[in-house]
Design a protein that fits this description.
elongated, Multidrug-efflux Transporter Regulator, Chain: A, Domain 2, mainly alpha, 135 residues
Length: 135
């Protein structure tokens, strides 16, 4: 498939696809006319690249990781080095910390929204007393 079709099917711009090639994350065969030609496997590869970027990995790390992952074309995956596994484990731990921080932030916002929603029920012109904390 040509670059435009890959862009359409993967939801990624042609510019991004060309960047992925320069970063050695994606490869294309060339037609006799010099056009890029991708196999069906490329759609899954691009989606995987996008997922890894969204997880906070940089292109260098993604380039190290991609050979360890199996594409739908059945290409054999390589064994990850212990160093790469350690780095990816650290990256996963970082992401887990971010998720925990976001959950805490969401919980605080839920409390504020709940409090503000109950305060909105008060008659106009009357302030809602803040909870005292003692019963």
């Amino acid at each position: 498939m040509r670059i435009g079709e890959l862009a359409r099917r993967s939801g990624v711009s042609e510019r991004s696809l060309r960047y992925y090639e320069t970063q050695e994350l994606l490869r294309a065969e060339r037609t006799p006319g010099g056009h890029r030609d991708y196999g069906e496997w490329a759609v899954d590869r691009v989606v995987r690249i996008q997922t890894l970027y969204a997880a906070g990995l940089n292109s260098r790390k993604i380039a190290q990781l991609l050979p360890c992952m199996r594409d739908t074309d059945g290409r054999p995956s390589e064994v990850a080095t212990p160093q790469l596994v350690d780095e990816l484990t650290a990256e996963r731990d970082r992401i887990n910390r971010l998720i925990a921080d976001l959950v805490r932030s969401r919980d605080v916002l839920d409390e504020v929204i709940d409090t503000a929603s109950h305060g909105a029920d008060a008659p106009a012109g009357r302030a809602v007393a803040a909870p005292t904390g003692s019963a």
